[in-house]
């Protein structure tokens, strides 16, 4: 499935990641619930954004797509020209970072979507927004689009809840 990030700012917005060994998921164990979620992220100069996420998993690899349509990038974004990382947190406090450099070609002034972002996941993983501690230099997401770099910090946990792999 896809995890979507919304923003023209997303064109300069970002997200990040987690860790102990449980058995890897078999191909038939690739169900993720919920398949989509959203959370608020403070993306600095681009403001507070509602980021949409879509998730799937196959053979122990989780995939996320991020999207945001609140801020639209003012120029065309060529396919596969972004670099994004998003960190999610397990219930035990450890994190996992999904990363990737894929995106569809995005016409100017339309919804920005990046992904898939990939990371190793384990059966039973419950992954939710990584909210950095107050005053911490940690970030939840990093995004680079056409040389515009941005970081974001999650402000809320995911709605309707964490991704359960």
Features:
globular; eleven-stranded mixed β-sheet; mainly beta; 42% strand; 0% helix; 165 residues; disordered N terminus
Taking the sheet with the most strands, its summary is: 11 strands, mixed
Q: What is the average of the pLDDT values?
A: 83
Low-pLDDT sequence parts: 1-28
Total number of β-strand segments? 11
Straight-line N-to-C gap: 12 Å
Radius of gyration: 15 Å
Query: How many domains in all?
Result: 1
3D architecture notes:
This protein is mostly beta strands. It has one domain (5-164). 0% of the residues lie in helices and 42% in strands. The protein has strands spanning 5-6, 36-42, 48-58, 61-68, 82-90, 95-100, 112-120, 126-129, 141-145, 148-154, 163-164. Strands 1, 2, 3, 4, 5, 6, 7, 8, 9, 10 and 11 form an 11-stranded mixed beta sheet that branches.
Q: What secondary-structure arrangement, pairings included, does this model have?
A:
Elements: E1 5-6, E2 36-42, E3 48-58, E4 61-68, E5 82-90, E6 95-100, E7 112-120, E8 126-129, E9 141-145, E10 148-154, E11 163-164
Parallel strand pairs: 1-4
Antiparallel strand pairs: 2-3, 2-10, 3-4, 4-7, 5-6, 5-8, 5-9, 8-11, 9-10
Summarize it.
It contains no helices and eleven strands.
